[in-house]
Amino acid sequence: MTAEPASRTPRLTAALRTGGRVMPLELFFDLVFVLGLTQCTAFMADEPTWQGLAKGLLILGILWWSWIGYSWLTSVVDPEDGGVRLVLIAAMAAMLVVALAIPEAFGDRGLLFAGGYAVVRIAHIVLFAIASRDDPALRRSVSWLAGGTAVGVSLIAAASFADGTLQGALWVLALVLDMGVPLLFGSEGWKLEPEHFAERYGLIVIIALGESIVAIGVGAEHGVEAGEVIAAVLGVFISAALWWLYFDVVALVAQRRLQRAQPGRERNEIARDSYTFMHLPMVAGIVLLALGFKKTLEHVDDALKIEIAVAMLGGLAAYLLAHVAFRWRNVHRFSAQRAVAAVVLAALTPAAIELPALLTLAVVLLVLVALIVYENHRFAELRDRLRHQVAEA
User: Fold this and answer.
1) pLDDT, tens digit, for every residue of 324-355?
2) Which residues contact 297 (CB under 8 A, 6 or more apart)?
3) What Rg do the C-alpha atoms of the chain give, in angstroms?
4) Secondary structure string (H, E, C) spanning the chain
5) Cβ atoms within 10 Å, residue 81
6) I want to staple 285 with a disulfide (CB 3.0 to 4.6 A). Which of 34, 295, 319, 350 is the partner?
7) C-alpha of 227 from chain center
8) Phi then psi dihedrals of residue 14, to 5 deg
9) For residues 74 and 26, is the Cβ–Cβ distance under 8 A?
10) pLDDT(5) > 70
11) What is the pTM of this model?
């Protein structure tokens, strides 16, 4: 008598990525992150104090760590594969809940924020665990990540029942431990597609710059007179200068370095340091600039308050210093001109609390334009050669 074949229960699978380009679902997923950035800017604008700025940056750090997990995930698995697609859409819904809870993340909606955050992170771990079924090295890395995620999520949940200094300390501890986990275990097990990975982070920089443009519109909602028009135009040019400083050469050099790195530990550590860590101060700097835009457009003739001046000018300095670190990590060359520009911008803070905000924007734009003109002249031959090589590739 022939035995009946054993029935097999269908299981969720994750097809590995085969292409290097960012897929439409990934861009769709990032739209929810846009709302999170907008909510961070609004949070700090509603509470423009040192404490409010610190809280806003902590929220941004949590959002960032949620997003980067999916940047690594979708560089391994095909995000538009059937089951993966559904899980990503569910994670989008959870991220939306997180974004909606941001205004009261340290208050009445703290537990809602923590719950949405837990779903986002758990979905990420589940998909990574499925993708690593036949890869022991990746499975070990995912296990370490799962442990760090469990601790981080638990601390954010615990913080929702606390307040004051204890609550802030729990948030800081959660973020530090979560971000520290990748530094504590081996990086050999991860996998990524370098072209996709670099493009994904370039797109998130564009998304952050888009938030700075949105902040201009929100700031001008009380009226559009000559001063607001001039401030808006200056704001667009400043955002364009930040785009130029990143995409004209820096992004191209970094992508080529990642592509040429040896697969495994070398490539993974470059990706971790250059993109996962160093892009955080870039994005944070743009968000703080957006805060400055919003407050400037509200009162173009008034000087900026000290907290806003420090946030905006310090954010721009952080953006440029992150570029300095980014370049050093990738090609071991120090960008003295960007370091000097960062110092100059930070040094403008005393003037920014005395001068009309409109004039502060004009001075900021002059500094950035001077930096771009200098670099285009100083490195004209190298820039031209690099961009032609990329175009011919």
Assistant:
1) 999 999 988 999 999 999 999 999 999 999 99
2) 215, 216, 218, 219, 220, 228, 231, 232, 235
3) 22
4) CCCCCCCCCCCCCCCECCCCCCCHHHHHHHHHHHHHHHHHHHHHHHCCCHHHHHHHHHHHHHHHHHHHHHHHHCCCECCCCHHHHHHHHHHHHHHHHHHHHHHHCCCCCHHHHHHHHHHHHHHHHHHHHHHCCCCHHHHHHHHHHHHHHHHHHHHHHHHCCCCHHHHHHHHHHHHHHHHHHHHHCCCCCCCCCHHHHHHHHHHHHHHHHHHHHHHHHHHHHHCCCHHHHHHHHHHHHHHHHHHHHHHCCHHHHHHHHHHHCCCCHHHHHHHHHHHHHCHHHHHHHHHHHHHHHHHHHHCCCCCCCHHHHHHHHHHHHHHHHHHHHHHHHHHCCCCHHHHHHHHHHHHCHHHHCCCCHHHHHHHHHHHHHHHHHHHHHHCHHHHHHHHHHHHHC
5) 18
6) 319
7) 31
8) -130, 110
9) yes
10) no
11) 0.91
Q: Which domains does the chain have, with CATH numbers?
A: 15-191 (no CATH), 193-393 (1.20.1410)
Q: Which residues contact 305 (CB under 8 A, 6 or more apart)?
A: 48, 295, 353
Confidence label for 12 from pLDDT (cuts 50, 70 and 90): low
Rounded CA-CA distance 393/376 in Å is 22
Residue for token pair 């997180």: 98
Q: Would you say how long the chain is, in residues?
A: 393
Looking at residue 93, its pLDDT comes to 95
b/e burial code for range 363-390 (CB count within 10 A of at least 16 → b): bbbebbeebbeebeeeeeeebeebeeee
Residue 252 has pLDDT above 50, yes or no: yes
Residues forming a β-bridge with 77: 16
Cβ atoms of 243 and 209 closer than 8 Å: yes
CB atoms within 10 A of CB 41: 26
Distance CA 129, CA 12 (A): 11
Please check whether residue 159 is in contact with residue 171, taking contact to mean a CB–CB distance below 8 angstroms. Answer: yes
